[in-house]
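Page 47, continued from p. 46.
Same chain as before, 279 aa.
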Amino acid sequence: MRIARTLPELHEATAALRRRAGALTLVPTMGALHAGHGALVRAAVARGDPTAASIFVNPLQFAPTEDLARYPRDEAGDLDKLRAWGCDLVWLPDIATMYPAGAATTIVPEGPPAEGWEGAARPGHFRGVATVVAKLFGQIGATHACFGEKDWQQLQVVRRMVADLHLPVAVIGIATVREADGLALSSRNRYLAADERTRAPALHRALRHAAGRLAAGAEAAAALAEATAALTADGFAVDYFALVDGPSLRAIPALVPGARLIAAARLGPVRLLDNLAAG
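Result:
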């Protein structure tokens, strides 16, 4: 596994990988890697082409009130995991490389799927995501990229950006990896206190229950209100629990093919995200 920390090192490494194959799959990460990232890397490796992963904690996608300074970092542990998962190249840029002095261009997604939900709760977040992902695609020359479905809205924003900017990258969504009790894996789960960790799987149970109610013919508004009330009773502060069109993230009043249940809720200091196919 090669490690690149400068653009000349990266370009030398990617050129060598392209001589092996005509394609290169990227797994963008912010580090603090866990089994969910492992699923992305293994899916990339399984394609049969060289696989690159990036580790960069992107300041542009954090609001001033968010946890940039606290965001977990474990470079040595991350590199060990990536070796074990079969990664060929790791890109480890610093902030000055990603955002050099004088840089004046960002990508600002507007309209669906970026508006609402996380776009409303975290103003500027998807500007940061779109900008850094576009930079990574350009730096690495990726032909394919794997993203987790846990961050469903982010996945759709990246797909929309790729389509709108005509980028030659195929975006591959990988199913959410969960603990045995249903909790979606996340780097921030480590901040849950013991009692909060015990209660956290209720978010996934609420999504499953709502999906079952919808499949049985319940009105969407009633199923969503019931789920929100149940989570509130379990001690969650619910930001949203909604039924949306999967690709556009527009709220919809009833179950349709491709519908998605999405949810965000706070438990103690941790904001949990999850989603589930609903139709």
